[in-house]
Amino acid sequence: MKKIASALLLSAMAAAAVPASAEIVVIVSKQNPATRMFSEQASQFFLGKSNLFTPVDQADGSAIRNEFYHKVADKDAAQVKALWSKLVFTGKATPPKEFPNSAEVKKAVAADPKAIGYIDKSAVDDTVKVILTLP
Length: 135
Hints:
Elements: H1 2-17, E1 24-29, H2 39-46, E2 54-58, H3 63-73, H4 77-89, E3 97-99, H5 102-111, E4 115-120, E5 128-134
Parallel strand pairs: 2-3, 2-4
Antiparallel strand pairs: 1-4, 1-5
Keywords: Signal
Protein name: Phosphate ABC transporter substrate-binding protein
Signal peptide: 1-22
């Protein structure tokens, strides 16, 4: 019982060390003509409902990915994974390519005019264009 209490305390401390809510922005390449987007539109690309843009995802299980999907689609990681499994199984879509962090997502988006991704606002620089800021 003492081990369980210690483990719970450690995980609570680790969760407290992570910022409660980072400001997430949706980005596209500077060459992309898009200038603005609504959350509902962004969710269409990241949930395989539109192929106008090529979504670039953060690492599975990352805090930013979980927060992003919660904010744009009101879905948790398991719901998103189940949705993509169905789309892949039926041959209707290919899941977004995953990158380990915001710097790598930004690099991939900057290199592809059709790409769309999301990163922490603090990682934005002049290589990409912000088209949506999530509250």
